[in-house]
Design goal:
The protein has 13 helices and seven strands. It is mainly alpha-helical.
């Protein structure tokens, strides 16, 4: 079936058993049922070490039908952008939380493509649907983190997900323009944004009650004024800034993660910062003291 933007909708149902290299017993790769491109069908076939005749035949038929089908309205630039970001961000999450991620690289790439295609198709996935999709593809996730990961990937398929993230980040910024320097979280030389450790959305409530959160009342120089609340923050890179807001509400950040030390103590934030500190910045950035280094990420 021809989809907007020239993609081909393909429904594949396979149940295949094979013995991967180094395995003693045959392993069932599972049943895959969903929407993917012709290239996606072939990629899965190559991964499992076979090329099912049905998949190849139906792929050829789909290509022939696509060539003769009337053109559908093109997908908007905004949808293409969201599909790219959703696939990219889902892959990053899976690389961080999948068991033996390097061994599952091809499966993660396949999951990335599938998530992108769902966004292009306008599908908003539920947490349960993401869990089923990853299980059918065969991606193995750390059981302790699976539930949260499934929900975060499901959120990425929502049309308003990235707009909400940008809005929250924009609301938090207010400590001046972005600048170049050392991120206070991952310690990379990169472009930095301002993060209010007590989110601005909560300022009015705190000022109305007339007292800071208990742990801040003992901080030297702390006072329950709008000036102090606006000045109480950190400068961090955009990825570190985003991950703070992904895991806690603004009310929780204000009460429980209102210092740099507390932010870094959050298990998911800590894990991300450890990973992000090893990433090479991209784009424009202030040079390090040694005179090397460029980019911002």
């Amino acid at each position: 079936q021809k989809l907007p933007g020239g993609l081909v909708q393909h429904v594949a149902r396979w149940r295949i058993s094979t013995t991967p290299p180094g395995a003693d017993q045959p392993q069932r790769y599972g049943t895959f049922e969903g929407h993917c491109t012709v290239q996606g069908v072939r990629a899965m076939a190559v991964y499992i070490g076979t090329r099912p005749k049905e998949a190849i035949a139906s792929s050829a038929e789909a290509e022939a039908e696509a060539e003769s089908a009337e053109a559908e309205p093109e997908v908007s630039d905004e949808t293409w952008s969201r599909s790219f970001m959703a696939g990219r961000d889902a892959a990053v999450l899976l690389q961080r939380h999948a068991e033996c991620a390097e061994e599952q690289e091809e499966l993660i790439d396949f999951a990335k493509e599938t998530i992108s295609e769902h966004v292009i198709s306008g599908d908003v996935l539920s947490c349960e649907e993401v869990e089923t999709l990853l299980a059918d593809i065969g991606v193995q996730i750390d059981p302790d983190e699976a539930s949260e990961l499934h929900q975060r990937i499901a959120d990425m398929t929502r049309p308003d997900h990235y707009a909400l993230l940008e809005a929250m980040a924009a609301a938090e910024e207010g400590g001046g323009d972005e600048d170049d320097g050392t991120c206070e979280m991952c310690e990379r030389e990169t472009r930095r944004t301002w993060h209010h450790l007590v989110p601005k959305k909560v300022h009015n409530r705190i000022l109305k009650r007339g007292s800071l959160p208990l742990n801040l009342q003992t901080v030297s120089g702390a006072e329950c004024t709008r000036i102090w609340l606006n000045a109480h923050g950190i400068k961090c890179c955009r990825p570190c800034h985003n991950v703070i807001h992904e895991h806690e509400s603004e009310e929780s950040l204000a009460e429980n993660y209102n210092t740099l030390e507390l932010v870094l103590s959050h298990p998911q934030v800590h894990k991300f910062v450890a990973w992000n500190s090893k990433q090479v910045p991209r784009g424009k950035v202030a040079k390090s003291k040694s005179g090397s280094g460029s980019g911002w990420r």
